[in-house]
């Protein structure tokens, strides 16, 4: 009986050691991935001069709409699509809020109301892009949000060229980001959301690959 109890204790200790090692490996991997993710957050606009079929602005952050309108005024695309606009807000209201004269560019601005998150922005935009027959988009969103945005957009628009155009909120400190609690919290949150989105897309591909209808 004592021998059996000893074996059980030894087995339990071995399991605890394995679990501790697994937790340590997971923590190290997550941390390394976090720093790799932070390095992918753009620090500048890489392709400011490329003209695309359309510009897409994702609502939800300061400076995004203004940047999109400036790009449209500079003829960087023929159309501007604003995704995730509150219901009840029309183009005139949106342009008034941005201090733009509606008649100036109203004809070239369209809005979508159905998106409530980044995946919804991608799905809403994909429907609009297919209806328009566009093949290239300039994506305007905050720099910290750009990696997840591109992940979601590439998932639903694999054959469309995407040109990232980040905007840079003043409260997001990229230099030594880990030393700024607010920025660190924001980047960690985005990283976890990217992991969830990537896992979901991987599951979709595996499910589709197994011959699911």
Can you give a write-up of this model?
By secondary structure, the chain is of the alpha/beta class. It has a single domain (36-205), classed as 3-Layer(aba) Sandwich (Rossmann fold), CATH 3.40.50.620. Helix content is 54%, strand content 13%. The protein contains 7 helices and 5 strands; from the N terminus they run H-E-H-E-H-H-E-H-E-H-E-H. Strands 3-2-1-4-5 form a 5-stranded parallel beta sheet, sandwiched between helices. Helix 2 (64-73) links the parallel strand 1 and strand 2. The chain is elongated. The mean pLDDT is 89.
Keywords:
alpha/beta; Rossmann fold; five-stranded parallel beta sheet; 5 strands
Lay out the secondary structure:
Elements lengths: L1 H39 L13 E5 L5 H10 L5 E5 L7 H7 L4 H4 L3 E3 L6 H15 L3 E7 L3 H11 L4 E7 L13 H29 L4
Parallel strand pairs: 1-2, 1-4, 2-3, 4-5
Helix pairs in contact: 5-6, 6-7
Task: Summarize this structure briefly.
This protein has 213 residues and is of the alpha/beta class. It contains 7 helices and 5 strands, in the order αβαβααβαβαβα. 54% of the residues lie in helices and 13% in strands.
Number of helices: 7
Helix content: 40-55%
Main CATH class: Alpha Beta
Question: Which geometry do the CA atoms define?
Answer: elongated
How much is the radius of gyration in Å?
23 Å
Global mean pLDDT: 89
Largest sheet: number of strands, sense, barrel closure: 5 strands, parallel
């Amino acid at each position: 009986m004592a021998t059996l109890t000893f074996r059980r204790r030894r087995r339990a200790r071995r399991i605890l050691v394995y679990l501790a090692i697994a937790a340590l490996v997971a923590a190290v991997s997550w941390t390394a991935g976090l720093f790799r993710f932070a390095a992918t957050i753009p620090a500048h606009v890489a392709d400011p001069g490329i003209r695309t079929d359309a510009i897409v602005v994702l609502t939800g952050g300061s400076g995004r709409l203004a940047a999109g309108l400036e790009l449209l005024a500079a003829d960087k695309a023929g159309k501007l699509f604003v995704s995730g606009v509150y219901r009840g807000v029309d183009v005139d209201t949106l342009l008034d809020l941005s201090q733009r004269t509606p008649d100036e560019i109203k004809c070239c601005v369209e809005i979508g109301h159905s998106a409530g998150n980044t995946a919804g922005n991608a799905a809403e935009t994909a429907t609009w892009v297919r209806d328009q027959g566009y093949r290239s988009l300039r994506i305007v969103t905050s720099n910290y949000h750009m990696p997840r945005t591109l992940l979601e957009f590439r998932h639903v628009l694999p054959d469309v060229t995407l040109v990232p155009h980040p905007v840079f909120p003043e409260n997001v400190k990229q230099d030594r980001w880990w030393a700024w609690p607010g920025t660190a919290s924001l980047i960690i949150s985005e990283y976890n959301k990217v992991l969830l989105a990537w896992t979901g897309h991987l599951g979709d591909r595996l499910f589709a690959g197994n011959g699911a209808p």
